[in-house]
Amino acid sequence: MNIEKIENHTIIFKKIFLFTFSTGLLIRLIGAYSLLPSKIDTLFFTLVSLLGLMLLFTDFFILKKISIKKNILLILFILALLLSAIVNGPSGLIANFKLIIWQIIYLFVVFQVGYTVELHESINTLEKIIIISWNILTILSILMFFGHFSYVAPLDKFYNGLRIGFVENRLYGVFADPNFAGTVSVAVLLLSVYYILSKKNFLFIKVTSIISLPIQFIYIVLSGSRTALISLVVVAFFGTLFFAYHRGKRKISSYGISFLLGLIAVLFVFGGEWAIKYSLPKMAQNTPVVFSIKTNSAKHHDKKTDVTLARADVDQKDDVSNNRFELWKSSFEIFKSTPLVGTSPRNLMDYAEKKLPSTFIATKKQTSHNFIFYLLATTGVLGTLPILLFILIKIFIALRVLIISKENSYNRFLLDTLVCLAILVSACFLTELVLVNKIGTFLFWLYLGKVALFSDEFLKKRDVIYETTKR
């Protein structure tokens, strides 16, 4: 058996997997895609999952690139998912097994793609494609804002139905969910900053990245996604802090200056948010109505109403979290009723309705809107501890490398870390990161693989230098 030949073919298939999977997940965020028959989506992602499982089999059994020892926490997490599905079966057993397969693909294939240095050039190409395509989608969305375009229709796939354009003072635009789309815009904004600062790129991608900055920032604000805004604030602070820290002399005074610059970046974000909220609704007030329909049976509206970004679902409520606190409380109540293995992901609603019908999750039929509370409720302690430990260990190591590294590729490592941080922050307010099949999940595990590779290589090199010096 020619291992080198198999490895070369595996790299090619991983490239196919990288571009195909990411493209499918990006298209899934477009609202109109949901109008297509579900069979198309099922068929596409079934083929992707089969390719992912083939790559997993090759890496694990033939190339032996996946170490059980290094991935013991992830393996324990998968075993906990299996146990939870079986204990809570037979209800939802097949649906849980499907979800477990996807989780395996994210943890051992997507992560491994990011951990493979031979694929980093392909990831760079993917980043440029994402910047260009996401710019087109967000520009279309912003044009909907100025054109007063709105369309709302009932659709079982979405809790509030299908929404396109500017609806209830939020810019959904072409996207199915402004929260998830806003988080992707934060990631695209980070990528754009990197390509602007990079010296190795063509003029086209630099110009596209420069255009991307205001476009993505405007969409984040108009989307009304506080999750995306919080994520942007966090990465703006830490990104500026570590960028300045790396370029400084690393004396006590430079630490203070880096911290101060981080705070200035935060103020800049809030200042930009205020400027957009103040100016763009006034500009849109003077533009003509393009199209406005509220239900399938409603007539076309050509009368314009006042344009405002004030959200009635938030501003007119005492609960600043927009029900998130209640969902978290409800998730914890469910966790306390089954602390060891949880309800299993696909049985959460059914369990809540049967065992705890008075909980907020049972009455509202919404999920936890926080990946930790969701893990606790659906997988219990056995599932939550290993995956959280794995993520926390990777964060701690990345933070250590950010502090001590002086490598030329520092900016690239900082970018990868910030993309992970952006998704991680958003996952504290959305059901993302684990046990879902979304573009944010894909980006997190892909870039965490890159972060892990850089960290491992840096620390290995540092240990070699230390041992050589010691001798």
TrEMBL record:
Chain segments annotated as transmembrane: 12-36, 42-63, 72-93, 99-117, 129-151, 171-196, 203-222, 228-245, 257-276, 371-393, 413-436
Compartments, as annotated in UniProt: Membrane
InterPro entries hit by this protein: O-antigen_ligase-rel_domated, WaaL-like
Keyword Metal-binding: no
Gene Ontology molecular-function annotations: ligase activity
Keyword Ribosomal protein attached: no
Alphabetical UniProt keywords: Ligase, Membrane, Transmembrane, Transmembrane helix
Membrane topology: Multi-pass membrane protein
Main location per the UniProt record: membrane
Domain (O-antigen ligase-related): residue spans on this chain: 216-386
Annotated PANTHER family: LIPOPOLYSACCHARIDE BIOSYNTHESIS PROTEIN PA4999-RELATED (PTHR37422:SF13), TEICHURONIC ACID BIOSYNTHESIS PROTEIN TUAE (PTHR37422)
Protein name: O-antigen ligase family protein
